[in-house]
Design a protein that fits this description.
The chain is of the alpha/beta class. It has ten helices and twelve strands. A five-stranded mixed beta sheet has the order 10-9-11-8-12, with helices on both faces. Strands 1-6-2-7 form a four-stranded mixed beta sheet, with helices on both faces. Strands 3-4-5 form a three-stranded antiparallel beta sheet, covered by helices on one side. It is elongated and about 60 Å long.
Length: 300
Amino acid sequence: MLTGSLRRRAISAAALVLTGALALSACGEKESGAGDAITPAGGPDARLAGLVPDAVKSDGKIVIGVDATYAPNEFLDTDGKTVIGWERELFDAVAAKLGLKTEWVPSKFDDIVPGVQSGKYEVGVSSFTINDDRKKAVAMISYFNAGTQWATKKGNPAGIDPDDACGKSIAVQKGTVQADEDLPARQKKCKDAGKPEIKVSPYQGQDQATNAVVSGKEDAMLADSPITAYAVKETGDQLATLGSIYDAAPYGFILGKDQAKFAEAVQGATKALLDDGTYKKVLEKWNVQAGAITDPAVNP
Protein backbone atom coordinates (compact mmCIF):
# COMPACT_ATOMS: atom_id res chain seq x y z
CA MET A 1 0.00 0.00 0.00
CA LEU A 2 1.30 3.44 -0.86
CA THR A 3 2.09 5.94 1.85
CA GLY A 4 2.61 9.69 2.02
CA SER A 5 1.08 12.08 -0.48
CA LEU A 6 -1.66 9.93 -1.92
CA ARG A 7 -4.50 12.33 -1.67
CA ARG A 8 -6.30 15.32 -2.95
CA ARG A 9 -8.77 17.49 -0.94
CA ALA A 10 -13.12 17.35 0.72
CA ILE A 11 -16.81 18.16 2.40
CA SER A 12 -20.09 16.26 2.45
CA ALA A 13 -23.28 18.08 1.58
CA ALA A 14 -25.12 15.08 2.93
CA ALA A 15 -23.85 16.29 6.29
CA LEU A 16 -23.88 20.03 5.69
CA VAL A 17 -22.12 22.03 8.35
CA LEU A 18 -24.96 24.48 7.77
CA THR A 19 -27.06 22.18 9.93
CA GLY A 20 -24.22 21.00 12.15
CA ALA A 21 -24.98 17.39 11.34
CA LEU A 22 -22.41 14.67 11.74
CA ALA A 23 -20.87 13.10 8.68
CA LEU A 24 -22.86 10.31 7.12
CA SER A 25 -21.24 6.97 6.53
CA ALA A 26 -20.31 6.09 2.98
CA CYS A 27 -21.96 2.71 2.96
CA GLY A 28 -23.63 1.90 -0.32
CA GLU A 29 -23.35 1.43 -4.04
CA LYS A 30 -25.45 3.17 -6.65
CA GLU A 31 -25.59 2.92 -10.40
CA SER A 32 -25.61 6.01 -12.53
CA GLY A 33 -28.71 7.84 -13.62
CA ALA A 34 -29.76 9.70 -10.47
CA GLY A 35 -30.85 13.32 -10.77
CA ASP A 36 -30.70 15.65 -13.75
CA ALA A 37 -27.24 14.68 -14.94
CA ILE A 38 -25.89 16.19 -18.15
CA THR A 39 -25.45 13.59 -20.88
CA PRO A 40 -22.92 13.84 -23.73
CA ALA A 41 -24.05 14.67 -27.24
CA GLY A 42 -23.70 12.19 -30.07
CA GLY A 43 -23.85 8.96 -28.11
CA PRO A 44 -20.98 6.48 -27.61
CA ASP A 45 -17.81 6.67 -29.65
CA ALA A 46 -17.28 3.25 -31.25
CA ARG A 47 -13.54 3.68 -31.72
CA LEU A 48 -12.95 4.66 -28.10
CA ALA A 49 -15.31 1.96 -26.85
CA GLY A 50 -13.21 -0.56 -28.74
CA LEU A 51 -10.18 0.36 -26.63
CA VAL A 52 -11.90 -0.61 -23.37
CA PRO A 53 -10.66 -4.01 -22.11
CA ASP A 54 -13.13 -6.88 -22.38
CA ALA A 55 -12.75 -7.51 -18.65
CA VAL A 56 -14.10 -4.02 -17.97
CA LYS A 57 -16.91 -3.80 -20.54
CA SER A 58 -18.18 -7.37 -20.30
CA ASP A 59 -20.73 -6.42 -17.61
CA GLY A 60 -21.59 -3.09 -19.24
CA LYS A 61 -20.31 -0.92 -16.41
CA ILE A 62 -17.21 0.59 -14.83
CA VAL A 63 -16.74 -0.03 -11.09
CA ILE A 64 -15.39 3.13 -9.47
CA GLY A 65 -13.82 3.70 -6.07
CA VAL A 66 -14.68 7.08 -4.54
CA ASP A 67 -14.30 8.87 -1.21
CA ALA A 68 -17.71 10.54 -1.08
CA THR A 69 -16.90 13.24 1.49
CA TYR A 70 -15.62 15.97 -0.81
CA ALA A 71 -18.41 18.28 -1.93
CA PRO A 72 -18.94 19.62 -4.49
CA ASN A 73 -16.62 17.15 -6.21
CA GLU A 74 -18.07 13.92 -4.84
CA PHE A 75 -20.35 13.44 -1.84
CA LEU A 76 -23.44 11.58 -0.66
CA ASP A 77 -26.93 12.80 -1.40
CA THR A 78 -29.44 13.24 1.41
CA ASP A 79 -30.34 9.53 1.24
CA GLY A 80 -26.87 8.76 2.58
CA LYS A 81 -26.21 6.31 -0.27
CA THR A 82 -26.21 8.00 -3.67
CA VAL A 83 -22.91 9.53 -4.78
CA ILE A 84 -23.40 12.92 -6.42
CA GLY A 85 -21.16 15.84 -7.40
CA TRP A 86 -19.55 17.27 -10.51
CA GLU A 87 -16.85 14.61 -10.72
CA ARG A 88 -19.49 11.91 -10.72
CA GLU A 89 -21.41 13.69 -13.46
CA LEU A 90 -18.26 14.18 -15.50
CA PHE A 91 -17.11 10.58 -15.27
CA ASP A 92 -20.64 9.30 -15.89
CA ALA A 93 -20.44 11.23 -19.15
CA VAL A 94 -17.00 9.74 -19.88
CA ALA A 95 -18.42 6.26 -19.34
CA ALA A 96 -21.44 7.03 -21.53
CA LYS A 97 -19.07 8.11 -24.33
CA LEU A 98 -17.53 4.63 -23.99
CA GLY A 99 -20.97 2.99 -24.12
CA LEU A 100 -20.89 2.01 -20.44
CA LYS A 101 -22.69 2.75 -17.17
CA THR A 102 -21.05 3.33 -13.80
CA GLU A 103 -21.15 1.76 -10.37
CA TRP A 104 -19.85 4.04 -7.62
CA VAL A 105 -18.45 2.35 -4.50
CA PRO A 106 -17.76 4.66 -1.53
CA SER A 107 -14.42 3.94 0.09
CA LYS A 108 -11.80 5.48 2.35
CA PHE A 109 -9.57 7.67 0.24
CA ASP A 110 -6.38 5.85 1.16
CA ASP A 111 -7.92 2.54 0.05
CA ILE A 112 -8.71 3.61 -3.51
CA VAL A 113 -5.26 3.43 -5.10
CA PRO A 114 -4.59 -0.04 -3.62
CA GLY A 115 -8.12 -1.01 -4.70
CA VAL A 116 -7.39 -0.04 -8.31
CA GLN A 117 -4.06 -1.86 -8.16
CA SER A 118 -5.70 -5.05 -6.89
CA GLY A 119 -8.60 -4.91 -9.37
CA LYS A 120 -11.27 -4.25 -6.74
CA TYR A 121 -12.03 -1.01 -8.60
CA GLU A 122 -11.61 -0.52 -12.34
CA VAL A 123 -11.20 3.24 -11.94
CA GLY A 124 -10.66 5.66 -9.07
CA VAL A 125 -12.39 9.05 -9.22
CA SER A 126 -11.82 11.11 -6.09
CA SER A 127 -10.00 14.40 -6.75
CA PHE A 128 -6.59 12.73 -6.93
CA THR A 129 -3.89 15.31 -7.47
CA ILE A 130 -1.46 14.05 -10.12
CA ASN A 131 2.06 13.66 -8.74
CA ASP A 132 5.11 11.50 -9.39
CA ASP A 133 4.41 9.07 -6.53
CA ARG A 134 0.98 8.25 -7.88
CA LYS A 135 2.17 7.96 -11.47
CA LYS A 136 4.60 5.26 -10.31
CA ALA A 137 1.65 3.24 -9.02
CA VAL A 138 -1.24 3.91 -11.42
CA ALA A 139 -2.08 5.55 -14.73
CA MET A 140 -3.63 9.03 -14.39
CA ILE A 141 -5.71 11.04 -16.87
CA SER A 142 -5.91 14.78 -16.20
CA TYR A 143 -9.28 16.55 -16.25
CA PHE A 144 -9.21 19.57 -13.88
CA ASN A 145 -6.87 21.98 -12.05
CA ALA A 146 -7.23 22.83 -8.36
CA GLY A 147 -5.10 24.60 -5.77
CA THR A 148 -5.14 24.89 -1.98
CA GLN A 149 -7.29 27.44 -0.14
CA TRP A 150 -7.49 28.22 3.59
CA ALA A 151 -10.67 29.16 5.50
CA THR A 152 -11.61 30.21 9.01
CA LYS A 153 -14.62 31.58 10.88
CA LYS A 154 -16.05 34.72 9.32
CA GLY A 155 -14.25 37.74 10.68
CA ASN A 156 -11.16 35.64 11.44
CA PRO A 157 -11.58 35.75 15.24
CA ALA A 158 -8.50 33.57 15.77
CA GLY A 159 -6.33 35.97 13.75
CA ILE A 160 -5.14 33.31 11.33
CA ASP A 161 -2.40 34.10 8.84
CA PRO A 162 -1.76 31.12 6.54
CA ASP A 163 1.88 32.21 6.21
CA ASP A 164 2.32 32.33 9.99
CA ALA A 165 -0.10 29.88 11.64
CA CYS A 166 2.40 28.84 14.32
CA GLY A 167 0.67 27.72 17.50
CA LYS A 168 -2.78 27.67 15.87
CA SER A 169 -5.07 24.65 15.67
CA ILE A 170 -5.60 23.70 12.01
CA ALA A 171 -8.07 21.10 10.71
CA VAL A 172 -7.22 18.99 7.68
CA GLN A 173 -8.37 15.77 6.05
CA LYS A 174 -6.11 12.77 6.53
CA GLY A 175 -4.06 11.65 3.55
CA THR A 176 -4.40 14.89 1.59
CA VAL A 177 -1.51 16.80 0.07
CA GLN A 178 -2.36 19.48 2.61
CA ALA A 179 -1.89 17.01 5.49
CA ASP A 180 1.11 15.16 4.10
CA GLU A 181 3.10 17.95 2.47
CA ASP A 182 1.76 21.46 3.10
CA LEU A 183 1.32 21.51 6.89
CA PRO A 184 4.51 19.55 7.72
CA ALA A 185 6.52 22.13 5.75
CA ARG A 186 4.79 24.94 7.62
CA GLN A 187 5.40 23.20 10.95
CA LYS A 188 9.12 22.95 10.18
CA LYS A 189 9.21 26.64 9.31
CA CYS A 190 7.66 27.48 12.69
CA LYS A 191 10.11 25.21 14.52
CA ASP A 192 13.12 26.63 12.68
CA ALA A 193 11.98 30.13 13.66
CA GLY A 194 11.73 29.12 17.32
CA LYS A 195 7.94 29.47 17.31
CA PRO A 196 5.29 27.00 18.55
CA GLU A 197 4.47 24.35 15.96
CA ILE A 198 1.11 24.32 14.22
CA LYS A 199 -1.35 22.09 16.07
CA VAL A 200 -2.48 19.84 13.22
CA SER A 201 -5.86 18.16 13.74
CA PRO A 202 -6.37 15.42 11.12
CA TYR A 203 -9.90 14.21 10.35
CA GLN A 204 -11.03 11.17 8.38
CA GLY A 205 -13.49 13.23 6.31
CA GLN A 206 -13.33 16.84 5.16
CA ASP A 207 -16.90 17.33 6.36
CA GLN A 208 -15.65 16.63 9.90
CA ALA A 209 -12.79 19.08 9.49
CA THR A 210 -15.15 21.78 8.23
CA ASN A 211 -17.62 21.19 11.07
CA ALA A 212 -14.77 21.58 13.56
CA VAL A 213 -13.95 25.03 12.23
CA VAL A 214 -17.58 26.14 12.12
CA SER A 215 -18.08 25.02 15.73
CA GLY A 216 -14.96 26.84 16.88
CA LYS A 217 -13.16 23.66 17.90
CA GLU A 218 -10.40 24.38 15.35
CA ASP A 219 -9.02 27.76 14.29
CA ALA A 220 -8.88 27.19 10.54
CA MET A 221 -8.71 24.59 7.79
CA LEU A 222 -7.16 24.13 4.37
CA ALA A 223 -8.41 22.02 1.48
CA ASP A 224 -8.67 22.03 -2.31
CA SER A 225 -9.90 25.37 -3.61
CA PRO A 226 -13.32 24.21 -4.94
CA ILE A 227 -14.02 22.37 -1.69
CA THR A 228 -13.21 25.40 0.47
CA ALA A 229 -15.31 27.69 -1.72
CA TYR A 230 -18.25 25.28 -1.50
CA ALA A 231 -17.90 25.03 2.29
CA VAL A 232 -18.09 28.81 2.62
CA LYS A 233 -21.24 28.89 0.50
CA GLU A 234 -22.99 25.92 2.09
CA THR A 235 -22.37 27.06 5.68
CA GLY A 236 -24.26 30.27 5.05
CA ASP A 237 -21.07 32.30 5.05
CA GLN A 238 -20.16 31.21 8.57
CA LEU A 239 -16.72 30.67 7.08
CA ALA A 240 -14.49 32.95 5.01
CA THR A 241 -11.53 32.17 2.79
CA LEU A 242 -8.05 33.28 3.78
CA GLY A 243 -5.30 34.37 1.42
CA SER A 244 -4.91 33.32 -2.18
CA ILE A 245 -5.20 29.95 -3.90
CA TYR A 246 -1.76 28.38 -4.34
CA ASP A 247 0.00 25.22 -5.58
CA ALA A 248 -2.46 24.58 -8.41
CA ALA A 249 -2.13 21.08 -9.86
CA PRO A 250 -4.21 18.77 -12.06
CA TYR A 251 -6.63 16.10 -10.85
CA GLY A 252 -6.47 12.72 -12.51
CA PHE A 253 -8.76 9.74 -13.01
CA ILE A 254 -6.76 6.69 -11.90
CA LEU A 255 -6.55 3.34 -13.70
CA GLY A 256 -4.33 0.30 -13.45
CA LYS A 257 -0.71 0.93 -14.39
CA ASP A 258 -0.87 -1.67 -17.19
CA GLN A 259 -4.13 -0.38 -18.70
CA ALA A 260 -2.63 1.72 -21.52
CA LYS A 261 -5.52 1.18 -23.98
CA PHE A 262 -8.13 1.84 -21.29
CA ALA A 263 -6.29 5.03 -20.31
CA GLU A 264 -6.29 6.10 -23.97
CA ALA A 265 -10.04 5.47 -24.10
CA VAL A 266 -10.74 7.55 -20.98
CA GLN A 267 -8.48 10.35 -22.19
CA GLY A 268 -10.18 10.33 -25.60
CA ALA A 269 -13.65 10.35 -24.05
CA THR A 270 -12.72 13.26 -21.80
CA LYS A 271 -11.40 15.19 -24.80
CA ALA A 272 -14.61 14.42 -26.70
CA LEU A 273 -16.62 15.95 -23.84
CA LEU A 274 -14.51 19.10 -24.05
CA ASP A 275 -15.11 19.27 -27.79
CA ASP A 276 -18.89 18.77 -27.64
CA GLY A 277 -19.46 21.18 -24.74
CA THR A 278 -20.52 18.58 -22.16
CA TYR A 279 -17.44 19.20 -20.01
CA LYS A 280 -18.15 22.94 -19.84
CA LYS A 281 -21.81 22.36 -18.96
CA VAL A 282 -20.95 20.04 -16.06
CA LEU A 283 -18.39 22.42 -14.56
CA GLU A 284 -20.64 25.46 -14.97
CA LYS A 285 -23.56 23.61 -13.39
CA TRP A 286 -21.45 23.17 -10.23
CA ASN A 287 -19.71 26.56 -10.53
CA VAL A 288 -16.20 25.07 -10.71
CA GLN A 289 -15.38 26.21 -14.25
CA ALA A 290 -12.35 28.17 -13.00
CA GLY A 291 -10.47 24.87 -12.87
CA ALA A 292 -11.25 23.81 -16.43
CA ILE A 293 -8.46 22.46 -18.63
CA THR A 294 -8.22 22.20 -22.41
CA ASP A 295 -5.89 19.26 -22.91
CA PRO A 296 -6.61 16.07 -20.92
CA ALA A 297 -3.57 13.78 -21.02
CA VAL A 298 -2.35 10.42 -19.77
CA ASN A 299 0.29 10.81 -17.04
CA PRO A 300 0.99 14.50 -17.75
